[in-house]
Amino acid sequence: MLEDRPETTRGFLLRSRLQDLAQHRLFPLGVMVVAMALVLPSLGAGLLIDDYHHKLFFSGSDSPAGLLDSPLDLFRFFDDDPGRSRQLQDLGLLPWWTSEGAKAAFWRPITSLTHWLDYTLWPDTPALMHAQSILWYGVLALVTALLYRRVSPTAAIAGVAALLFAFDHTHATPVSFLANRNAVVAATFGVLALLGHDRYRREHSKPMLLGALVLLAASLLSAEAGIATVAYLAAYALFLDRGPCKSRMGSMLPYLAVVVLWRLLWNGLDCGVENLGVYIDPLREPGRYAAAVKDRAPLLLLAQLLAPPSDITLMMPPSGTRILWLGALVFLALFTVLLIPLLRQDRVARFWALGTLLSILPISATFPSDRLLTFTSIGAMGLIAQFLAATFASNSGLRDLRPWRLGAVPLAYVFVLVHAVIAPPVLMARSSQPFGPQSFIQQMSLEPLDKAVETQDLIVVNPPLAFITGTSVFVWADEQTPFPRRLRLLASSLFRPVRVARPDVHTLVVRPHYGYYGWVFDALFRDPKDTFRPGDRVELAGMTVEIIEVTGDGRALEAAFIFPVPLEDPSLRWLQYGPNGFEPFTPPPIGQTAVLPAPPPPWDR
Question: Is the per-residue pLDDT at 560 higher than 60?
């Protein structure tokens, strides 16, 4: 077989040229340019969802949420103040099923400063805001290339890893979604901290230690994801550090002190997540977090190493997600078996492998999404580059393991196809449309209405995805179009039929096909432990919700919406989602039932 023959002259020249190219002092700058070029389509991505939250604050407009009061605290979405939560529910900015005490507040002052810079210098030019994100991505690719060069066994392996990192399609959303820039900023400071720590341990430079500690703090103050820096520091102490065991373990103490101090400040500023469905604080709910790691980590690792994107689970039924999870376990088991010979002989491969695994832990605290994988991709691309070298290089020491090569060679070609051939165009495509085609968001959003709506409650019976429809409020506020007195989104249809009944003049009974908050973003607002029981009531301004029937997991399945005025009263304006988007809805006559049809989702049209 060809792989058993001595290395050909062509193969030797190819490897030599790659080695020479990767060793060039300007190679990291070249990787930076390539990375930035691939995400240039994000210049046209515009503003999306949370971006309007920030724009309203900096423009001085009255934000419907009214939560932000500092340019250093732009990621406080809702807090556990009962009065504030009830006010947001009354306005319709939080759904009626929101748990009491729900909180989502993140302290990211450094990333907030980058947005302050955007709205200070070019407040009306989103393309320039995206240009700043592209520059951050270029810097991240540059410093990551330097990290690979510093720790990889050969320049060629470092070069391959750097290019694979620049090509990685999972980076699309953190670059192109302005409010997700925090992931790129945190990773940039995290990699710089690793470079500083490496110099500190190799050269015994105390200034480098101080710099690494400051950079770790900067990473944590950019995003909570910065905690993954410690994952790589721990892997470094175990596998790359050549000092005595006591010294290696002791080297971690200053970094742990920084993390503890950061967490204390975070708590002191009333930041955190509480009583939510998809965000979990590992320190507050360790049992629930452990279960989440079991469910989410395999999907995230599969998305990073192979395919498909973990985001597809947002639209998959539980049965489909379970099948994908089982497939992920099978792939990870096979890959682990193939990695064992490499891990036994190469401490750098062990470093990347452990860093990759540990970096998955913090992001498993929320729903699987490729936008969370920025830190994980650092270790994953380093590991894949070493796996490719072990498979294809003539001097890898593993070429004579015939049973191993039977599995390693096909997988190596799959990795080349996925990460070197498919990933770059996918990165470009996803950078221009981080949440899919713009038409998808538009079809889920409400169009501006006439001025009469300012004195009306706008009631949408069956929005396909209530979370996305609710963001229309921020667009209305930004465009200064008429704003309803209250917005009521009764139930996400999830593109399935919704049954409605009219028992009396004041009441509409709604039964969605899958029940209420069955979609991950709707479930965001309710703690799964906070179950409903038949007869439970939610009292809001102008509307009372009474639970009639619940699902096996305690979600509302059927609910009655009771209004103080007849449903035909002109103070109520009704909408439904139909074949042509949102259209007027007429409540059925008393005693009758209707089924609102399920138009196909936009991706089927």
Answer: yes
